[in-house]
Amino acid sequence: MCDTGNGSVALPRIGEKAPAFKAVTTQGEINFPADYSGSWVILFSHPADFTPVCTSEFMTFATMEDKFAQANCKLVGLSVDGLYSHIAWLRTIKEKIEYRGMKNVEVRFPLIEDITMEVARKYGMIQPGESSTKAVRAVFFIDTKGIIRAMIYYPLSLGRNFDELYRIVIALQTADAFGVALPADWRPGDEVIVPPAGSCGVAKERMEGQSDMKCYDWFFCTKQLDKDKVLGTILKK
Questions:
Q1: Which of 7, 40, 79, 168 would staple 73 via disulfide (CB 3.0–4.6 Å)?
Q2: Average pLDDT of 218-225?
Q3: Catalytic site residue from 54, 200, 215, 221
Protein backbone atom coordinates (compact mmCIF):
# COMPACT_ATOMS: atom_id res chain seq x y z
CA MET A 1 0.00 0.00 0.00
CA CYS A 2 1.54 3.33 -1.05
CA ASP A 3 0.77 6.84 -2.21
CA THR A 4 0.53 6.90 -5.98
CA GLY A 5 1.72 10.49 -6.24
CA ASN A 6 -1.61 12.01 -7.23
CA GLY A 7 -3.08 12.00 -3.74
CA SER A 8 -4.78 8.63 -4.06
CA VAL A 9 -3.74 5.48 -2.23
CA ALA A 10 -3.07 2.18 -3.99
CA LEU A 11 -5.27 -0.66 -2.80
CA PRO A 12 -3.72 -3.56 -0.88
CA ARG A 13 -2.94 -6.51 -3.11
CA ILE A 14 -3.16 -10.26 -2.78
CA GLY A 15 0.19 -11.71 -1.72
CA GLU A 16 1.30 -8.57 0.10
CA LYS A 17 1.58 -7.89 3.81
CA ALA A 18 -1.63 -6.57 5.34
CA PRO A 19 -1.18 -2.85 6.11
CA ALA A 20 -0.34 -2.43 9.79
CA PHE A 21 -2.25 -0.19 12.18
CA LYS A 22 -3.13 0.31 15.83
CA ALA A 23 -6.73 1.01 16.77
CA VAL A 24 -9.28 1.25 19.55
CA THR A 25 -12.02 -1.39 19.39
CA THR A 26 -14.99 -2.60 21.40
CA GLN A 27 -12.64 -5.25 22.85
CA GLY A 28 -9.77 -2.90 23.68
CA GLU A 29 -6.76 -1.74 21.68
CA ILE A 30 -5.31 -3.90 18.93
CA ASN A 31 -2.07 -3.90 16.96
CA PHE A 32 -2.99 -5.33 13.57
CA PRO A 33 -1.98 -7.75 12.16
CA ALA A 34 0.78 -8.45 14.71
CA ASP A 35 -1.71 -9.41 17.45
CA TYR A 36 -3.14 -12.10 15.19
CA SER A 37 0.10 -13.83 14.21
CA GLY A 38 -0.51 -17.57 13.93
CA SER A 39 -4.22 -17.16 13.16
CA TRP A 40 -6.16 -16.50 9.99
CA VAL A 41 -8.19 -13.30 10.15
CA ILE A 42 -11.16 -11.90 8.32
CA LEU A 43 -10.97 -8.10 8.48
CA PHE A 44 -14.21 -6.62 7.21
CA SER A 45 -15.85 -3.23 7.01
CA HIS A 46 -19.47 -2.12 7.13
CA PRO A 47 -20.98 1.24 6.12
CA ALA A 48 -22.58 2.34 9.38
CA ASP A 49 -23.93 1.32 12.78
CA PHE A 50 -27.70 1.26 13.29
CA THR A 51 -28.39 0.25 9.70
CA PRO A 52 -30.42 -2.82 8.68
CA VAL A 53 -28.11 -4.65 6.26
CA CYS A 54 -25.15 -4.22 8.60
CA THR A 55 -27.22 -5.48 11.51
CA SER A 56 -28.14 -8.65 9.63
CA GLU A 57 -24.48 -9.19 8.78
CA PHE A 58 -23.17 -8.70 12.30
CA MET A 59 -25.75 -11.08 13.70
CA THR A 60 -24.70 -13.68 11.13
CA PHE A 61 -20.98 -13.20 11.76
CA ALA A 62 -21.52 -13.41 15.52
CA THR A 63 -23.53 -16.64 15.30
CA MET A 64 -20.81 -18.14 13.06
CA GLU A 65 -17.84 -16.94 15.14
CA ASP A 66 -17.25 -20.33 16.78
CA LYS A 67 -17.38 -22.02 13.38
CA PHE A 68 -14.70 -19.69 12.06
CA ALA A 69 -12.68 -20.18 15.24
CA GLN A 70 -12.59 -23.94 14.64
CA ALA A 71 -10.86 -23.12 11.37
CA ASN A 72 -8.31 -20.97 13.26
CA CYS A 73 -9.89 -17.82 11.86
CA LYS A 74 -10.65 -14.71 13.90
CA LEU A 75 -13.01 -11.87 12.99
CA VAL A 76 -12.34 -8.13 13.14
CA GLY A 77 -14.93 -5.55 12.06
CA LEU A 78 -14.62 -1.87 11.19
CA SER A 79 -16.71 1.16 10.37
CA VAL A 80 -16.03 4.88 10.47
CA ASP A 81 -18.38 5.30 13.46
CA GLY A 82 -17.12 6.07 16.95
CA LEU A 83 -16.63 3.64 19.82
CA TYR A 84 -19.73 4.70 21.77
CA SER A 85 -21.88 4.28 18.68
CA HIS A 86 -20.46 0.78 18.24
CA ILE A 87 -21.17 -0.15 21.85
CA ALA A 88 -24.73 1.18 21.75
CA TRP A 89 -25.47 -0.57 18.45
CA LEU A 90 -24.13 -3.93 19.59
CA ARG A 91 -26.13 -3.63 22.81
CA THR A 92 -29.26 -2.92 20.76
CA ILE A 93 -28.60 -6.01 18.62
CA LYS A 94 -28.32 -8.20 21.73
CA GLU A 95 -31.29 -6.76 23.60
CA LYS A 96 -33.81 -5.94 20.89
CA ILE A 97 -33.19 -7.57 17.51
CA GLU A 98 -34.58 -10.96 16.56
CA TYR A 99 -34.01 -11.92 12.92
CA ARG A 100 -34.22 -15.24 11.07
CA GLY A 101 -34.22 -17.19 14.30
CA MET A 102 -31.24 -15.27 15.70
CA LYS A 103 -31.83 -13.48 18.99
CA ASN A 104 -29.87 -12.43 22.07
CA VAL A 105 -26.86 -12.27 19.75
CA GLU A 106 -23.73 -11.02 21.47
CA VAL A 107 -20.93 -9.72 19.25
CA ARG A 108 -17.71 -10.73 20.97
CA PHE A 109 -15.18 -10.00 18.24
CA PRO A 110 -13.60 -6.52 18.08
CA LEU A 111 -15.23 -3.70 16.14
CA ILE A 112 -12.75 -0.96 15.23
CA GLU A 113 -13.46 2.73 15.76
CA ASP A 114 -12.22 4.55 12.64
CA ILE A 115 -13.71 8.05 12.73
CA THR A 116 -10.61 9.47 11.00
CA MET A 117 -10.99 6.86 8.20
CA GLU A 118 -7.27 6.15 8.49
CA VAL A 119 -7.63 2.38 8.49
CA ALA A 120 -10.45 2.41 5.94
CA ARG A 121 -8.29 4.39 3.53
CA LYS A 122 -5.29 2.08 4.03
CA TYR A 123 -7.44 -0.86 2.97
CA GLY A 124 -9.31 0.86 0.15
CA MET A 125 -12.59 0.56 2.02
CA ILE A 126 -13.62 4.08 1.04
CA GLN A 127 -14.81 3.93 -2.58
CA PRO A 128 -15.82 7.50 -3.57
CA GLY A 129 -18.03 6.30 -6.41
CA GLU A 130 -20.13 4.48 -3.82
CA SER A 131 -19.72 6.84 -0.82
CA SER A 132 -17.06 9.28 0.33
CA THR A 133 -18.23 9.14 3.97
CA LYS A 134 -18.91 5.43 4.51
CA ALA A 135 -16.87 2.27 4.03
CA VAL A 136 -18.09 -0.27 1.52
CA ARG A 137 -18.50 -3.90 2.57
CA ALA A 138 -14.88 -4.99 2.12
CA VAL A 139 -13.60 -8.38 3.23
CA PHE A 140 -9.91 -9.25 3.60
CA PHE A 141 -8.71 -12.81 4.23
CA ILE A 142 -5.33 -12.66 5.96
CA ASP A 143 -3.22 -15.73 6.72
CA THR A 144 -1.18 -16.73 9.75
CA LYS A 145 1.82 -14.75 8.49
CA GLY A 146 -0.14 -11.54 7.95
CA ILE A 147 -0.35 -11.92 4.16
CA ILE A 148 -3.50 -10.91 2.27
CA ARG A 149 -4.72 -14.05 0.50
CA ALA A 150 -8.08 -12.93 -0.90
CA MET A 151 -10.39 -9.93 -0.81
CA ILE A 152 -13.95 -9.09 -1.83
CA TYR A 153 -15.71 -5.75 -2.11
CA TYR A 154 -19.50 -5.42 -1.95
CA PRO A 155 -21.57 -2.25 -2.46
CA LEU A 156 -23.53 -0.67 0.39
CA SER A 157 -26.83 -2.16 -0.78
CA LEU A 158 -25.73 -5.81 -0.89
CA GLY A 159 -25.29 -8.05 2.14
CA ARG A 160 -22.52 -10.63 2.04
CA ASN A 161 -22.83 -14.39 1.45
CA PHE A 162 -21.47 -15.91 4.64
CA ASP A 163 -21.40 -19.47 3.37
CA GLU A 164 -18.99 -18.22 0.71
CA LEU A 165 -16.83 -16.37 3.24
CA TYR A 166 -16.47 -19.57 5.27
CA ARG A 167 -15.85 -21.63 2.10
CA ILE A 168 -12.99 -19.31 1.16
CA VAL A 169 -11.30 -19.76 4.54
CA ILE A 170 -11.52 -23.56 4.27
CA ALA A 171 -10.49 -23.55 0.59
CA LEU A 172 -7.41 -21.39 1.10
CA GLN A 173 -6.22 -23.59 3.95
CA THR A 174 -6.92 -26.73 1.92
CA ALA A 175 -4.89 -25.42 -1.02
CA ASP A 176 -1.99 -24.67 1.33
CA ALA A 177 -2.13 -27.92 3.27
CA PHE A 178 -2.38 -30.27 0.28
CA GLY A 179 -0.60 -28.34 -2.46
CA VAL A 180 -3.60 -28.35 -4.79
CA ALA A 181 -5.89 -25.91 -6.56
CA LEU A 182 -9.65 -25.92 -6.27
CA PRO A 183 -12.23 -25.91 -9.08
CA ALA A 184 -15.35 -23.80 -9.40
CA ASP A 185 -17.86 -24.25 -6.56
CA TRP A 186 -15.48 -26.54 -4.65
CA ARG A 187 -16.62 -27.87 -1.29
CA PRO A 188 -14.77 -30.23 1.09
CA GLY A 189 -15.10 -33.74 -0.33
CA ASP A 190 -15.11 -32.62 -3.95
CA GLU A 191 -12.30 -33.41 -6.36
CA VAL A 192 -9.31 -31.09 -6.28
CA ILE A 193 -7.08 -29.98 -9.14
CA VAL A 194 -3.56 -31.34 -9.37
CA PRO A 195 -1.02 -28.69 -10.43
CA PRO A 196 -0.57 -28.73 -14.23
CA ALA A 197 1.78 -31.46 -15.41
CA GLY A 198 3.60 -29.31 -17.96
CA SER A 199 3.23 -31.83 -20.75
CA CYS A 200 1.02 -34.67 -21.94
CA GLY A 201 3.77 -37.21 -21.23
CA VAL A 202 4.18 -36.13 -17.61
CA ALA A 203 0.40 -36.27 -17.18
CA LYS A 204 0.35 -39.89 -18.40
CA GLU A 205 3.15 -40.81 -16.00
CA ARG A 206 1.19 -39.26 -13.17
CA MET A 207 -1.94 -41.18 -14.07
CA GLU A 208 -0.02 -44.44 -14.13
CA GLY A 209 1.39 -43.72 -10.69
CA GLN A 210 -1.85 -42.55 -9.09
CA SER A 211 -4.95 -44.61 -9.68
CA ASP A 212 -7.17 -41.95 -8.09
CA MET A 213 -6.24 -39.33 -10.68
CA LYS A 214 -8.51 -38.32 -13.54
CA CYS A 215 -7.26 -36.27 -16.50
CA TYR A 216 -9.58 -34.42 -18.86
CA ASP A 217 -6.56 -33.33 -20.89
CA TRP A 218 -2.86 -32.99 -20.16
CA PHE A 219 -3.33 -29.61 -18.46
CA PHE A 220 -6.44 -30.51 -16.44
CA CYS A 221 -6.12 -33.34 -13.92
CA THR A 222 -8.07 -33.92 -10.71
CA LYS A 223 -8.00 -36.34 -7.81
CA GLN A 224 -10.32 -37.15 -4.95
CA LEU A 225 -9.56 -35.58 -1.58
CA ASP A 226 -11.61 -37.04 1.23
CA LYS A 227 -13.82 -34.62 3.16
CA ASP A 228 -12.84 -36.07 6.54
CA LYS A 229 -9.17 -35.72 5.65
CA VAL A 230 -9.65 -32.07 4.67
CA LEU A 231 -11.67 -31.08 7.73
CA GLY A 232 -9.56 -33.22 10.06
CA THR A 233 -6.48 -31.33 8.92
CA ILE A 234 -7.98 -27.85 9.16
CA LEU A 235 -10.56 -27.79 11.93
CA LYS A 236 -9.62 -27.70 15.60
CA LYS A 237 -11.04 -30.49 17.70
A1: 40
A2: 88
A3: 54
